[in-house]
Design a protein that fits this description.
The chain has 689 residues and is an alpha/beta fold. It has 4 domains: 5-183; 192-364, no CATH class; 407-513, no CATH class; 520-683, Vaccinia Virus protein VP39 (Rossmann fold), CATH 3.40.50.150. Helices cover 43% and strands 14% of the residues. Strands 15-14-11-16-17-19-18 form a 7-stranded mixed sheet, with helices on both faces. The protein has a 6-stranded mixed sheet with strand order 1-4-5-6-7-8. A hairpin with a 3-residue loop joins strand 6 and strand 7 (127-132). Helix 8 crosses helix 9 and helix 9 (221-243) packs parallel to helix 20. The two termini are 28 Å apart.
């Protein structure tokens, strides 16, 4: 393939003026505009958004570079397909020696590794380097580490086929990029960011737990788990805000110097309460807030060394993480695994970390792939916002009744953010920039939703329940970080000063802790034995009508989505377990011997929804005898609108469970049971094969 004329022209221009370009006076901004923009236009990328796509669907995002601590805190280009990141391009001016200079390579690899992108590019047009970004970066790596391709401008004609066949827009759309990336997978030294970050915070958990148990001998096991989780969540939240430019860079790092580290850290937590209004930082009783404040963690004793080790590991150059690009989805994958373990106190009040019994029984924790989340959201939420206005959509209620770390709620929230931005952008956007509560503001790269509008959408539309209190807090953390995604210190200050609001919503009325399957009728069982406090806490009954009175007055949730747990409760709990007895009584139309807990989530979802349900579930309910009552119930209701059967395709790798997507719609419908393995692979974008 012969390179386009523009590439030959650019090569000639650089050749003729090479000394001037390499002098140091030629700026990176000029290099991007005059060389790299036309280079990637020739590869088919819509660099200037000439197609006029909404912000969420632009081919290329040009990041506003934020200088913090002498470092650029955003990749120069992000190339995307359908809004999904594919690779970064980090630009340098021609005076930088890309081939040998360690700094630029480490910077690019931190961005892409943290964003979980397999490949990314470093270029000053003089040189063009491609890195395998699944290799964990280290400050001591030579520039050549993980570099899989490099050429200079004189080699573009010879190497053009190689570049275009992998990094042109057409090549990405046709799967050549993914195929090439997969061919490099398994390279020695590869370490995915979610696995590395999981190991990091698991290390924090055990060190914090041991020290808190030692220094605070009156802490109960439940209080210890709560305290460790909150401290970790708060540190991660503030550190991400630093890299996004919302908090002053280095505030946590500054605590490493000097004594009394934890009391000084608590001062930052208290300041964050005034700034963000999140339940994550809620220390005093406030009017109209239903959740009790945290009166425990600020009173604890914690040794300086433990926190020094944690905080110092979070910063360049020691840290491989670039928190500005660490997405809520990646954090969710990390936390899903993290929540599979619990801190236990021994008789000597020493802390140990064990697998949760239900996780051990299930053989591990398995995060729902993003493409499955997106598919279910498109087939539920998308159907209900068609041809509506934001005012009409404001009454849409989306629920995940077993929300875990929040992956489905994040997916639904992101879809609604994108939908609102596109609607406002197409319907006189200047109108929506005005007024006391504007929905939009405009920056150098186009229109964006205001923080107030992002908060409004979250509070109106997104709801979740989980029996695990730690999972509830993680879901809240992920959603709060999503509210702040793309925001800056300036935009946050606008919210604080002019709207006189704190920057984040209190999600206590949206994301709740409780047992989705067992209601208050549980306590009216005639044969109920005496239950101690811990047993009541474990069962954690949940009154849907009392917790969401306005929603049920309106008929229930419009959409129920998720990946409910799969677990044989007869074997796991035992025949005499009080929860199992309660389920038998509350779900006689579903219960059968050797029953799976997911059957009751399907029945409950039907009960509390008023329009649509979208679950990914074990396909056992399609054929197993133990699901015959459930199948009969669904057939009687004529509720199943579609079943996407994966049969032999493993959605959850290495689990041994085959799955399907179950779609339910309320009303009179014919059952449609489809075996569409091939069809669904065509329907699902970003499929993993």
């Amino acid at each position: 393939m012969v390179p386009p004329d523009i590439i030959r022209q650019l090569v000639s221009r650089l050749e003729e003026n090479l000394a001037d370009y390499k002098s140091g006076n030629y700026k990176e901004t000029q290099l991007r505009r005059e060389f790299l923009d036309p280079f990637f236009k020739s590869l088919g990328w819509d660099i200037d958004n000439e197609q006029g796509y909404a912000e969420a669907y632009k081919d290329v995002i040009h990041e506003d570079a934020i200088r913090v601590g002498g470092m650029t805190k955003a990749p120069d280009y992000c190339f995307r397909i359908g809004g999904a990141r594919k690779f970064f391009l980090e630009a340098k001016k021609p005076s930088v020696d890309i081939k040998r200079n360690v700094g630029p390579a480490f910077q690019l690899r931190r961005y892409a590794w943290s964003a979980k992108l397999p490949l990314s590019i470093l270029s000053d047009f003089d040189e063009f380097a491609v890195y395998d970004c699944r290799v964990k970066p280290s400050k001591d790596d030579p520039a050549a580490t993980a570099r899989i391709f490099i050429c200079n401008y004189r080699e573009y004609e010879e190497k053009w086929d190689w570049i275009a066949e992998r990094f042109s827009r057409d090549a990405v759309l046709k799967g050549s990029f993914d195929k090439f990336a997969e061919s490099k997978k398994g390279k020695k030294g590869t370490a995915e960011v979610d696995a590395a970050f999981l190991a990091e915070i698991e290390g924090w958990r055990i060190e914090l737990a041991r020290n808190l148990a030692l220094r605070n001998p009156r802490l109960t096991q439940r209080e210890l788990n709560f305290s460790v989780q909150r401290i970790i969540d708060r540190i991660i939240f503030l550190r991400i805000c630093e890299d996004r430019g919302i908090e002053d860079y280095g505030r946590l790092q500054a605590l490493v110097s000097g004594g009394r580290v934890y009391p000084r850290l608590c001062e930052l937590f208290t300041a964050a309460d005034a700034r963000y209004n999140s339940g994550l930082f809620h220390f005093e009783t406030e009017k109209n807030r239903h959740e009790a404040p945290d009166e425990l963690t600020l009173t604890l004793e914690l040794d300086d060394k433990v926190l020094r080790d944690i905080l110092s590991s979070l910063y360049y150059p020691d840290s491989p993480y670039e928190f500005s690009v660490l997405s809520a989805d990646i954090l969710g994958q990390v936390y899903e695994q993290f929540l599979g373990k619990v801190i236990r106190l021994t008789e000597g009040h020493r802390a140990v970390v064990d697998d949760k019994p239900e996780v051990k029984k299930a053989g591990g924790v398995y995060y729902t792939p993003t493409y499955i989340v997106d598919y279910i959201v498109r087939n539920t939420v998308e159907k209900l916002v068609e041809k509506k206005t934001p005012k009409q959509v404001s009454t849409l209620r989306v629920l995940d009744p077993a929300c875990g770390s929040g992956s489905f709620l994040i997916g639904a929230y992101q879809y609604l953010l994108d939908w609102h931005l596109e609607w406002y952008s197409k319907n006189d956007p200047k109108k929506w920039v005005k007024g006391k509560s504007p929905a939009l503001y405009q920056n150098s790269i186009g229109y964006k939703l205001t923080v107030a509008e992002r908060k409004r959408i979250l509070l109106n539309n997104i709801y979740g329940v989980d029996i695990d209190s730690q999972a509830v807090e993680v879901t809240k953390l992920s959603l709060l970080l999503k509210v702040l995604e793309g925001e800056t210190e300036q935009s946050i200050q606008t919210t604080l000063k002019f709207l006189r609001e704190r920057a984040l919503p209190d999600l206590g009325d949206n994301i709740k802790c409780g047992n989705s399957l067992i209601g208050p009728d549980f306590y009216r069982q005639t044969e109920l034995p005496f239950l101690g406090e811990e047993e009541r806490y474990r069962i954690n009954v949940f009154d849907w009508q009392a917790e969401f009175p306005k929603i049920f007055k309106a008929g229930g949730f419009d959409v129920v989505i998720g990946n409910p747990p799969y677990l044989n409760i007869d074997d796991t709990w035992g025949k005499g377990d009080v929860q199992l007895k309660a389920i038998k009584l509350q779900y006689p139309h579903v219960y059968n011997d050797k029953t799976d807990i997911l059957f009751y989530f399907i029945a409950k979802a039907y009960e509390i929804s008023k329009d649509r349900v979208g679950f990914i579930v074990s396909r056992a309910f399609l054929e197993a005898f133990k699901a015959n009552k459930l199948r009969g119930f669904l057939a009687t209701k004529r509720a199943v609108s579609k079943i996407v059967d994966f049969r032999n395709f493993q959605v959850f790798k290495g689990v041994g469970i085959t799955t399907c997507v179950l779609q339910i719609e309320k009303g009179e419908r014919l059952n449609t049971v489809l075996s569409v393995y091939r069809l669904v692979l065509e329907e699902l974008p970003s499929r993993p094969i």
